[in-house]
Amino acid sequence: MSKHRVTLAVLFSVVGVFSLQIFAQESTYSPEVQGPSTEGELALEGFVYPSELEVKLWAAEPMLANPVAFGIDETGGLYICETFRQQKGVEDNRSHMNWLADDLSLTSVDERLEMFRKFLGADVEKYALEHDRIRLLRDTDGDGKADTATTFADGFNSIVDGTGAGVLAIDGDVYYTCIPKLYRMRDENGDGVADEIETLHDGYGVRVAFRGHDMHGLTLGPDGRLYFSIGDRGYNVVTMEGKRLLRPDTGAVFRCELDGSDLEVFAYGLRNPQELAFDDFGNLFTGDNNSDSGDQARWVYVTQGSDTGWRMYYQYLPDRGPWNRERIWYPYQSDDATSELQPAYVVPPIANISDGPSGLVHYPGVGLSPKYDGHFFLADFRGSAGQSGVRHFRMEPKGATFELVDDDWLIKSILVTDVDFGFDGRVYLSDWVDGWNGPGKGRIYTLTDPQYRLPSLETPSEELMTEGLAKLSETRLGELLAHPDKRIRQRAQFELVKKEAEDVLREVANSSSNQKARLHAIWGLGQMLRVGKILSKDLIELANDQDPEVRAQALNVLGDNNVTDAAPLFVAAVGNGTPRQKYFAAIGLGNLQSDENLFVIVDLLKQNDNSDPVLRHAAIRALAMCATDEQLVEFSKPQFPPSVRLGAVVALRRMESGSLKEFLNDPEPMVVVEAARAIHDLDIVDAVSELAELGLTPDSPDALIRRVMSANFKRGRKKNAERVAEIAADSRFSDSIREEAMQELLQWDEPPVFDRVTNKHRPLDTRSLDLSTPAVRGNLGGMMAGNSKLKTFAIQLAAKYEVQDVASYLQETFEETGNDPEMRREALIALDAVNSMSLMKLLDSGLTDEHDQIRAASREILARRNPVDAVPVLAEALNNGSRIERQSAIHVLDQLNVPEAEEVLLKSLDELIANNVPADIKLDLIEVAEKRESIKFKNRLNAIEKQRDPNDPLSAYRECLEGGDLTRGIEIFFGNATASCRRCHKVKGDGSDVGPDLSAVSKENSREYLLESIVLPNAKIAKGFETVVYALADGRIVSGIVKGETDETVRLMQPMGEIVVIEKDDIDAQTKGQSGMPADMAKQLTKSEIRDLIEYLSTLKTPYDPKGHE
């Protein structure tokens, strides 16, 4: 038995303790891992990659399973993060929507634990049954395949633990990120098992959010610090120095020293920055996941102090609120709408690329062809192998930021979670194999270019790392700063810093002919400056070097170390440097936190004039760090251009200052909108009343109007209701704004716990309708003017506020049979609410109306007023009405507490058992029986269950085939957070290309096919998305995507596009890829939701023609 980790009681009961040293103990954990097979070798045939490359299997199950990420140590060992807790402790709040209000309110890990206990009770202990762990694999004989495997560490199974999703091995230390902690481990005796562990930080992952939005991205920065990331599960961490870092609603990038000290937030506003990578010039990048709402993933230049705009509560708005409305995820000024709408507080992405950005690495400079120099390699994980792989691209400077160029695939048709370069010249890829939850399988493949794998270097990287750089002389280390391999350059830099080799670093920084060597020397000097080992004189001199990048990096290091004597250099660079130099100089001025050069920063905002978002950000950050509220308010004066006033507003936002109200009357709309965003979204109490009173016109920006209305809604007084009601009644405002105003008035007395603009958890007290009644009654006439949808809302208001004097209008609306049926229905309901004298007469006509929703509403009102008399009317509808009437009758009867209603329902259940009821009410009747405690209902429910065919995999869901609601089905497909259909699918051009386009899914497919696709997604994978590997009788292996099939043959498109026809009799063995659709999708939706979704999908019969929609 191997030695593993400490007992759980000791390891996971400690909260907020740093550098806790723990020694490993015996572990008996044995997860379910698939046994050995030939699948890994067979899968090679399905991969698509350039012909000059070779791909080989390095390791497979049972040596590893469910690999999330991996790291490579100096001797070629692979530390693999394995997960076995998906949906067994690592949850997704889409599977627990009843948790949502609680989840969005959480601010600490302890609160999350209490929420689990609240909802799960004793079952919460089941979350500790499975572990995540680290496996260590090695190739000890050098044959290109792993031959030893140990469990380096396990026991990551606390109730609050997340997925172990990041690992970094350096100089014997192994860092590991697993919510809620950052760990450091060591194997002191070399047996491949961690002997001790330290908890460096605790408090990451305060919310449940989405699975996969974990703590990850471990990498070393050029400054010698540890960088890592977290998804939008948020954080509440107390640093070793006692400072609290708190943002419970977004993702972030952190950095700290290697011992965990000096932890800081480097950037925030990210959704799920799974991996981080630095380029050769110290620039940090990440791929950030999209929100499954038609938006696209982001390629982000991670600048210090940046906010890239995502907040996790946007996820649960059907349209994602400001995220989509204000085009936060779009690249800067990518079109006119983005230029107009995108907030200035956001540092936008460089590009939209990938559908599932996962593993990420920058080319180290050796191992592949020179054509890959400067390229990033990004794993694109899409849930199924056929559409996944690794893409590569590079950055081209564009001002102080970049643009993405040369995008292409390195390898496709493999479900890669992570990618990295070994010191042996190989590219290593971790293969998840199938699906989303972890199939108990996992592979590591290597990709090599035989021509370039072992370059003709004096000292290859592998040899240097195996022997160790610590033994080398300072002179030799100085030479290695010019090595072609970035990793060798960086390790040489770190060794020189350890040896305090100031002279060598200074000599290389000043005199080397190799630019990259000079940069590493500068970064090394910066490390020494940070710990007080040298003075800043040499770096100050380098800030005047002839090489622009050397000057930029000298400014970077001086600013990072808060060197006051460098202020004149910063000022000069801001004035006349390159855009990159201006950026680092502005960051440096901000770090000095002095107002002495305030107008230099202001001049940068003026010169930039919003043209470069990274320069704007650097200047704004500097303003926020250097200026007081009063100084920033001075910039609201008209002599300052809009770019300066806008910058001052965002700086005040960063300070969460009430002085933002001074900018609400700015003549420039973009300045006013930015101030309103900050006041509203950050809930700046000192300025909310001014925002609520702000004057509006119908031409005011949508983002401004919504926030002004919301500010009035939050304040909730009579004058605030009057303000909202006036907008609702003003036909000059857009229909969407008027609709929002009416919805606020409908919720005035019982406000939702979520903010109506952002969806942030922001509970308000209930309040009396007396506060809003005068406003509604005084403006109801204006609200009635508009389209049928607006009139319907107005009618609902009349009902809610019992506006008697509109009864005649309501009656006229109902009696005019040419009006929209839904509006007439609402008018009838409103007449009931105001106790109209004419109601019973109108019900008589409503019961025979030509529209079924009006007939159904009439019966419902009748049942409420006279239950016994309504029963035979409802029974008649149940037997002879339309689908809407039948379903309505069942639910109304279920609500009537009279014996006659129960008898009708029981009789209908008997008819169901006898298979004598329409298919579209079967689910409704079953759901009624499931709710009832009566033995009569339970007996009939048991009889129904006994009739299900045990050999029919769809038997438990066949009642979902008919009877769905089309409108609700559309809402589920496009807006339901649980289903997230458009995360993978498109309909009529809206959605994602990860899975099949469903625009014509029902042209040739039945409802039963649709049901099977939801309940058993792997039973029939759509043509063009099913990958297979066949072993043929003649010994050949062929693979590809199934394009067609008969009883005798299979048409297969091979990786290079060739179509071949395979005789089924010639197939000896085969393996099939799994669908990318979650296998448990049916468990994530109610049966009613499945039925509604099928109803919508069944209407999709026409292929999408984009030319017709230009």
TrEMBL record:
Coiled coil: none annotated. It comes from the Bacteria. GO terms for molecular function: electron transfer activity; heme binding; metal ion binding. Keywords: Heme, Iron, Metal-binding. Residues 964-1101 form the Cytochrome c domain. It holds the Pfam family DUF7133. PANTHER family: LARGE, MULTIFUNCTIONAL SECRETED PROTEIN, LARGE, MULTIFUNCTIONAL SECRETED PROTEIN-RELATED. This is HEAT repeat protein. It comes from Thalassoglobus neptunius.
